[in-house]
Structures are given as C-alpha cells and as structure tokens.
Amino acid sequence: MKLTLRVWRQQNAEAPGAMATYEVDGISQDMSFLEMLDTLNEELILGGDEPVAFDHDCREGICGACSLVINGDAHGPERTTTCQLHMRSFDDGDTIDIEPWRASAFPVVKDLVVDRSSFDRIIQAGGYISAPTGTAPDAHATPVPKPDADSAFEHAECIGCGACVAACPNGSAMLFTSAKVNHLNVLPQGAPERETRVLDMVATMDDEGFGGCTLAGECATACPKGIPLPSITAMNKEWLRANRKVRR
Q1: Cα 34 versus chain centre, distance
Q2: Residue 166 main-chain phi, psi, to 5 deg
Q3: b or e along 120-151 (b: 16 or more beta carbons within 10 Å of the residue's beta carbon)?
Q4: 135-171 pLDDT, tens per residue?
Q5: pTM metric for this prediction
Q6: What is the pLDDT of residues 54-113, one digit of tens each?
Q7: DSSP assignment of 201-235
Q8: Which residues does 222 contact at the CB level (< 8 Å), separation at least 6?
C-alpha cells in the first residue's frame, strides 16, 4: 500500500503546530497502525529528519497509551485501540490525517503525545478503600451480588486512554470518571468512602478543566472497552445522594 500521511507536528505545548505531509510506501495490510508509524519514522531517521513522537507501550490494547485521532475519529475507524487498528481498514492511495487528542486538559507534549496526568489526579482524588489489616480474607468472606460484580468488572475495563474526552464535543471526562467511581462504589469494599469518593473525584475533574457533559453519547461510541453511557447517569445519582448527605 502507498499512503499519504498528514501528521500533526508540534515541538511543545507553547509552540505553534501544523500538519506535515509524508508519503509512505510498501505498507502491508497486516501491519498495525503503530507499525506503519514505525515505518514512517525509520524513513525519517534515515533521511536525517526528526521522527514523529507518539505514545505507545503494551501494543496489546491494554494500557491505553496509544492516543491518536485518525481521520477525525478517536483511535480511528474501528472501535478498538490504535495499536490494535490494522492497515487493512484503509485502502491503497488513502490520505490519512493523524492528530493528538484535542482537549485543554490534555496539553500537547510533542507532536502526537499529550499529557494525560489530569486523569491520574482524578484517580488519586478517589483515595483508598478501607480494608482490615492482618491475614488476607477468604475470597468468599465478603459476599457480592452477581449484578454488582458484573457492573464492577464492566467499569474496571476502562483503560484511561482518553478517547471519551477526545470524542466529546465538550471535552468532558464524565465517562472516564464515572467508570472509576462506579467500579468501587458498587462493591461493599468501597462503601465506607462512597460519598467522599464521588464528591472528590468529580470536583477534581472540574478543577482540571474538562468540559461539561451534555450526554451527546460520542464518548461511549468511541470507548474501545465499551463503557456504557448509563455509567454517567449512575455516577450522577451517586453524586446527588452524597451531596444531600453531606449537606445534612
């Protein structure tokens, strides 16, 4: 395959950025999107040019590091992570636009790399869960109803990639925050800090400069792990309940 790549190049958060055009040839349909970028960078390095900076780690769809907007879609045309997107999703001769996440809370570090430490601070605001010290409890010591366990597992699948923010027209982080809140709040182990957790995490999310949620639904559509939109509704109910309790 021969492709034309229009790639966002930006030296740092303060520097102006612009799209740069590159031609790549000999791309196999079996390559992943990141392997295609590796090929581009090899050619740039051999030509004495600076390679394109982009985030990656596991390349197995687990870590969430591969954050790219491809032809206007977070992670590209398939509902998967960028590292698991293969070039068979494109046609020979295509022009592909490649950009970083666009959100004020995700400042550009360089080229396609953005700083997502705001997500880390939201998680940190959730604090801890109370657990007795001593020997490890038996697995069946704390009964968990199956619907609650299923919900916790569903929300725990969130990998924090930020596609929900990139896809949202408001740059909202509600889907991410709701996944982290609901993961623990539906379990008995998370009950002691249930109210403070949701209040602190939502407050931190707002402080980080993410946009407001209008339930557009683009976040759930773009999420590679399928975190459902009702997760946001569940978190809103948790927040209202906690807010009323604190005000008493």
Answers
A1: 17
A2: -65, -35
A3: eebeebbeeeeeeeeeeeeeeeeeeeeeeeeb
A4: 777 777 888 999 999 999 999 999 999 999 999 999 9
A5: 0.92
A6: 999 999 999 999 999 999 999 999 999 999 999 999 999 999 999 999 999 999 999 999
A7: HHHHHHHTTPBPP---SHHHHH-TT---THHHHHH
A8: 73, 74, 75, 79, 163, 164, 166, 167
